[in-house]
Amino acid sequence: MAVFPKRRAARRRRKASLFFILLGLLLSLPVFSSEKQVNLATYEGVINPVAAEFIASSIAEATKDQAEALVIKLDTPGGLDTSMRMIIKEINASEVPIVVYVAPPGGRAASAGVFITMAAHIAAMAPGTNIGAAHPVAMGGGEMDKEMKAKVENDAVAYIKSIAEKRGRNVKWAEEAVRKSVSVPEKEAVALKIVDLVAEDVPSLLKQIDGREVVTESGKHVLRTKDAKVKEVSMGMRLRILNALSDPNIAYILMLLGIYGLIFELSNPGAILPGVVGAICLILAFYAFQTLPVNYAGLLLLLLGLIMFIAEIKVPSYGLLTVGGIISMILGSLMLMRSDAPFFRISWAVIIPSVATTALFFVFVVGMALRAQRAKPVTGAEGLVGMTVTAQTDIAPHGRVLLQGELWEAISDEVIKQGENAVVKAVDGLRLVVKRSNQ
Predict the structure, then answer these.
(1) Does domain 36-235 have CATH number 3.90.226.10?
(2) Residues linked to residue 79 through DSSP beta bridges, in sequence order
(3) Topology classification of domain 382-436
(4) What digits encode the pLDDT tens for the residues 96-154?
(5) CATH 3.90.226.10 domain span(s) along the chain
(6) pTM exceeding the 0.90 threshold for the entire prediction
(7) Could you confirm whether 111 is annotated as catalytic?
(8) Is 193 considered catalytic here?
(9) Sorting pLDDT into bands at 50, 70 and 90, what band is 336?
(10) Active-site residue, from 15, 89, 149, 151
(11) Which is the catalytic residue, given 111, 246, 267, 412?
(12) Which residues pair with 431 in a beta bridge?
């Protein structure tokens, strides 16, 4: 009967083992659940469709990671209104708290950057940064009329006031940033309740916002960021390439290179490489134009200038068409972007060399190719026409001539004596048609 105590002892040991296993699992759970993560996305440059896509994907990744917050390290001179509004919509719809941190020192949040910074759940700035100058600029090349200017300005004011009210920021200053383009440094921005705090760096920022309560799309959220792990979210290769292409100077150069390549291919068929490179450059340029405020009147002026250069080659105008082409290209380059914002203008340092190179390209390179096409052939049967031969026999009307050390059968409408020179008029199969030389 001693079997039963042994069985009971074995059951007790199994229960004890199971208890300690469960206890170990329970003790380990707080360790894993207490480890917090903050995602960090850095963007420097113009607010454009690439910026909007990058920030939207960063918010989506932070949501997937169940991050405690997403810090957007921002340095921007401004950008497109449409892209700015897309970013703000993503911030407002985010379940993860969004912290916009204007950095590094020397950076700024200007124009569209003001709206984005004020829309964040928490706004912070690094020492030596500034925020402001949010007045809308003309998108069309030139001054807007008073009525349109008032409409655009009032729309921007209403939008930034709604953002400031939603986040409890300084509504009066927000309006002045749009109407008067006021701008302030980081300490004054905190004093005026434009942003929430000044932080030396990201670790300092995370310590300062720890314990703050924010309201996101999913409800109230108390931040636990003091000892959080920071995960840096970088822009992928595709977006980096597209962002580089969105530079108006690069888009402009790609367009010209594309046109050069195609025209050279058409003027010199069979080269292949210039045509392939030109087509690729044009495709990239037209993609870039989709992300930029392009003025198609400027584009037409550029094309008109190129047509004038081609016309100068075919119909010499003693330089008048070349001058017209240069003027048309310069005007087109200045008008190509529908914006008065400096970051959307094509630099003079790019325009002048490009126009000069284009003029030289058409006058010399394309001109030489076209002249070579029109030149008299120097090989084959056609290349023999016009060459001088010597009669080896009397030609009346048949005979033989010596051409470049070779004997040819010849025929002529006139009598040519042996030893006299003649000129090839045509080639008839393996026989030369010649005439008496005047020399």
Answers:
(1) yes
(2) 47
(3) OB fold (Dihydrolipoamide Acetyltransferase, E2P) (2.40.50)
(4) 999 999 999 999 999 999 999 999 999 999 999 999 999 887 654 455 678 888 999 99
(5) 36-235
(6) no
(7) yes
(8) no
(9) confident
(10) 151
(11) 111
(12) 409, 428
